[in-house]
Design a protein that fits this description.
Elements (H helix, E strand, L loop, with lengths): L1 E6 L19 E2 L2 E2 H11 L4 E6 L3 H8 L8 E6 L5 H7 L9 E5 L2 E3 L3 H10 L4 E7 L7 E5 L5 E6 L11 E9 L15 H11 L4 E5 L4 E3 L3 H12 L10 E4 L2 E3 L4 E2 L4 E3 L2 E3 L4 E2 L4 E3 L2 E3 L4 E2 L4 E3 L2 E2 L4 E2 L10 E3 L2 E2 L4 E2 L4 E2 L4 E2 L4 E2 L4 E2 L4 E2 L4 E2 L7
Parallel strand pairs: 1-4, 1-6, 4-5, 8-12, 15-18, 16-19, 17-20, 18-21, 19-22, 20-23, 21-24, 22-25, 23-26, 24-27, 25-28, 26-29, 27-30, 28-31, 29-32, 30-33, 31-34
Antiparallel strand pairs: 2-3, 6-11, 7-13, 8-11, 9-10, 14-15
Helix pairs in contact: 3-5
The protein binds guanosine-5'-diphosphate-alpha-D-mannose and magnesium ion.
The site of magnesium ion has 4 residues, from loops.
Amino acid sequence: VKAVILVGGEGTRLRPLTCHCPKPMQPMVNRPFIEHVFTHLARHGVRDIILSMCYLPAVIAEHFGDGRRFGVNLTYVCEDTPLGTAGAVKNVEQHLDDTFLVLNGDILTDLDLTAMLAFHRQRRAALTIALTPVEDVRAYGLVELGERRRIRRFIEKPQSLEGITTNLVNAGTYILEPYTLRYAPANEFYMFERGLFPTLLEQGEPLFGYASDAYWLDIGTPQKYQQGNFDILAGAAQATLPGTPVADGVSAGAGCQIAPDAHLIGPVVLGERCQIGAGARIVGPAVLGDDCVIGPGASVERSVLWQRVQVSGSADQLAPAALQGCVVANDTVIGAGCFIGEQVVISNHCVVGAENRLDRGLRLWPHRSLPPKTITF
Ligand code: GDD
Ligand code: MG
């Protein structure tokens, strides 16, 4: 069975993290997100993968090459303009000659693909959609089931909850028979959710929903992206973690220097060559990418730092910087006396001057410099 992974979206809700780094390459506990998807597929024997790209394709292809190093066999197809989710699959139809999988490229899940495939075959379905229960269905595609879990209605991103009787949504994993693509127009923008699925339903094709309560998360917003990292750290989502254990709940890559009196409270993952200064505090869940430098006395709590982030210790009578609940991308410097709070997203190559206080989901775009004492709350 081959899998098509849709990775063409611009990841607008994850901006500014996606300005230079497409959603599938967002570091998820120090590995590009899509690597976790590859591992999940390979665990179920799916190794032939077609990546349907559009936005920043080179970043993906240059990292993974033919995929062999990652235990998979990759084929890249790139659209000139976005073709929509179903249009993107129609565009790779020549590679698909048997029952195949389609995956949204931003889903972290432990879904049992083997069992789902057995369900699909046993029902002789044209299409099986994985379903997952969510609390607020409005951000997702709602799927209503009838007898024997046959799909009877699609409501994509319902505006209101009136008349809604289920909390099961499209989980972004589909199994399809190749003939279903006959209903999709070639070289046109066309979506599964608002186009092909409703069309197949109207045509009376056998469509089924495979509901499960396996771990599931769409990483498409900063809050969910952060949650994905933390869920992996907590062991709620299956994943192989990089690094080796150095203390209870703390693992570190090669070449880290951790001051003897630094406090590290797990779950914490450090990349390679991180330096943690005297008296610094890292309170999990927290992830630091390669080559991060945490100055003496500085603190990082419940945060995700990418590579080469510098967090200043005390300087010129200023207190050390403190980070709490934020995401900081590559090559950013946080000055002394700064407080960076909940849901704040600081992009790559930023310099946050001393004594700034960024809080409440503030987002700083790439290559911005904030002079000292520019923002307070
Ligand atoms: N190649 C390609 N071309 N890929 C695309 C395109 C395109 O034009 N548009 C979107 N994608 C990819 C995105 O990169 C992403 O991996 C996936 O398709 C889904 O797009 P999102 O933008 O993340 O959709 P969503 O999260 O709002 O909604 C979808 O996923 C939900 C589950 O997370 C829908 O399928 C919902 O019905 C579903 O509930
Ligand atoms: Mg999504």
